[in-house]
Design goal:
Blueprint: H1 32-71, E1 74-75, E2 83-84, H2 88-94, H3 97-128, H4 135-141, H5 144-147, H6 150-160, H7 167-174, H8 186-214, H9 218-226, H10 231-242, H11 244-259, H12 263-269, H13 285-295, H14 299-332
Antiparallel strand pairs: 1-2
Helix pairs in contact: 1-14, 2-14, 3-8, 3-11, 6-8, 6-12, 11-14, 13-14
């Protein structure tokens, strides 16, 4: 029943009802100094939470990058003062046979290691995507090489590929093949290093592919099965197109890893690992940068090599962006 509001005897309107106290959602901010502190707290706290990352990145990422770029424009010896050279370090690289040899070795080792690695990872992920006995055990087992130390894995493979007493040459001898000089010959050495890289990273990429495959809708497989498609046809026509962005991601990441390849060739070569073998037959850009900076002491040239590697990685990232944009336009059209 509605309650009527009576007017005052003098005819003036009744007083307005006091405003109701706001609830938790409509709580008013305090006034005065406490209010200013409250508003400052609301605005500043998010920046305080993210500040440690940006401070760490500025100290250990941005500053070394800028300082390396500055060094690449100077002639700097260990313990000496820098001397301005401009782009001379870069022009010296353009005419250096050691730089082009390291660049070519980086490319060939990357191709030999990346292509089989990703193909094997796709196959393993496809097998683990089905209901197999002990599927959980196999998923953990294929990740074990990735958890292994680079030094330990490389030293073991160096013994396996040893020219005199290695097991690989022993197996080749059983089938009538002469022993291969895995360390001194160019292509055998690069193949051996690529085997180490493939062994370490295949399981990691397989788990990435497996996660992408499990996100593919099962309706697509059921529809393909009703149309009479075999498992192989489902893999080619359903799985591969569905995980294409993930495949592109692993290609880019593997390319970046191949460009920065350092530990495996250095440890595989032993005493001559820094120079990439006795004839620089497997010296990569990272090894050449290390040799220029810490063996010969030419920090300016080493910094120039580092910036060339950065530009190569930016080029790879740009190609990935163009391919991704093309795929999105293709799917959208």
């Amino acid at each position: 029943m509605a309650t009527s509001v009576r007017a005052r005897p003098d005819g003036s309107p009744p007083p307005a009802a006091p405003p109701s106290s706001p609830g938790p959602r409509g709580r008013r901010s305090p006034s005065g100094l406490r209010g200013r502190l409250y508003r400052w707290d609301i605005k500043a706290i998010p920046y305080v939470f993210v500040a440690p990352f940006f401070l760490t990145f500025a100290a250990f990422g941005l500053f070394p990058l800028i300082y390396t770029g500055w060094l690449s424009l100077h002639r700097v010896e260990l313990g000496g003062d820098p001397t301005w050279k401009g782009l001379e370090n870069y022009t010296d690289l353009a005419t250096s046979e050691f730089f082009w040899n390291a660049l070519f070795n980086t490319f060939t080792i990357g191709v030999i290691a990346t292509v089989p690695q990703l193909l094997m990872a796709l196959g393993l992920a496809h097998l683990l995507n089905y209901k197999l006995r002990g599927r959980g055990f196999f998923r953990v087992a294929i990740l074990a090489p990735y958890a292994t130390s680079i030094a330990a894995a490389t030293l073991v493979f160096a013994q396996l590929f040893n020219t005199d007493y290695g097991m690989i040459n022993g197996v080749l001898g059983w089938v009538g093949i002469d022993p291969v000089n895995w360390e001194s010959s160019k292509w055998p050495a690069q193949i051996a290093i690529s085997v180490i890289v493939t062994w370490r990273w295949t399981g990691y990429n397989a788990l990435i592919y497996l996660a992408a495959m499990q996100a593919v809708p099962q309706d697509l497989y059921e529809a393909a099965s009703l149309d009479g498609a075999s498992r192989w046809r489902q893999f080619i026509s359903v799985t591969i197109p569905s995980i294409r962005p993930t495949i592109l991601f692993t290609i880019v990441v593997s390319t970046i890893g191949a460009t920065q390849l350092f530990g495996e060739p250095m440890l595989f070569g032993g005493s001559v690992g820094i120079s990439g073998g006795s004839g620089n037959q497997f010296q990569t850009l990272s090894l050449l940068m290390y040799e220029k900076g810490w063996v010969t002491g030419a920090l300016g040239q080493a910094s120039a090599i580092a910036w060339v590697m950065l530009l190569l990685l930016l080029l790879v990232g740009g190609v990935q962006a163009l391919v991704s944009r093309h795929n999105r336009k293709k799917l959208g059209g």
